[in-house]
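Format is sequence with structure; example below:
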Amino acid sequence: MTKILFLLTLLPLSVFASSDPVTQLDLTNHWVGYFALILFVLAYILVMVEEFTHFRKSKPVILVAGVIWGLIGWVYASQGIDHAAEVALRHNLLEYSELFLFLLVAMTYIEAMKERLVFESLKAWLVSKGFTFRQLFWMTGFLAFFISPIADNLTTALIMGAVVLAVGSSNPRFVSIAMINIVVAANAGGAFSPFGDITTLMVWQKGLVEFSEFFVLFIPSLINFVVPAAIMHFAIKNEKATSSGEIVDIKIGGLVIVVLFIFTIATAVSFHNFLHLPPAMGMMLGLSYLMVAAFFIRKIEKRTQDDGFDVFRKVAGAEWDTLLFFFGVIVSVGGLGFMGYLAMTSELMYASLGATYANILVGLLSAVVDNIPVMFAVLTMNPEMSLNQWLLVTLTAGVGGSLLSVGSAAGVALMGQSKGLYTFGSHLKWMPVIALGYIASIFAHMWINEVPFV
């Protein structure tokens, strides 16, 4: 270990960071740019038809990400610009690494709680209370809506998704519709809080919207969730979940892990809010809580590391296809942005359509392309807009991803978690209903907050 640390000190500082300005070529009219766009579209088509092809969604996007940046590197090297692409790619990798670490810790906690039978116990409790599938539908939806502003929409969706799978495993139709409802609710809940979504964090960090000003989006966000939920309600049979009559006891340390997960979320929020550090660092600190707890759980159970509770087995149980899918999407879209496509699209939208229509279109784009680079492009352009217009684009970018299952981290994560019960196709069937909620939330914001339709 000492030798490794010594060798690291010999590396040039430029390996880890660079403050030099990045030379950026406009490749939007270059054949490389056209080819990259075609590849990205083809990759996303494969993602959309995964349920039919059984070709995992991470494979095409990772392949395309590598090809896109390979082409960018080739163009820049041929122009004698050796390190510009490298600096830009490192920036994309840094963005992904923060998301990756955040997700990995959240998924590890979920796996640990599943192994300790936390969700199985919750399932038994819900069934014993005699709740119907319709009641469970609304309970998980409202829980997702009110937890996501604190725990972020992805983590919330994973927790509620696990509950739905535990309670409704005998009813695939219920699982599918309930997960759609969770995605919509979690995204809507995350839109009115700086901590609810990465896009709201970006707007808040930029200083365009103050912390308390986000909460004027509460009613529009609630409408975005309630309108489609009220319609989907009638697609669920009002029958009770089947009960096996068994009583499931949570294993030793299960409730402790739940508490530690709450502390982990609080740590991540505190790191960002008070210490101005990346939330992922707080999540990694939270992972250490679980690792320490696992040691004492094994001691209490008097088992060896081979057959006892092992954190690293929970890490292995994380949904790696989802984590790698995020890598492919973020790096691919980052490459398209470096070519100039995202900035060009944003400029054309705001110059040609005006702020209101452009901000509504941002939400539609976020259903197809990840909302993080879309919002980043808007922030980079920094168009002249009022506070309420910035709130509008925050709302649309947050809830627009609900239109498609691949439009948000919550949707992608639940597709992986559901093991085929919730798919792109099942979500697409309800897109018109979700779009109705999207439109209603926009009009609610414009009416309540007096946004001119210009």
User: Anything to note?
Assistant: The chain has a mean pLDDT of 82.
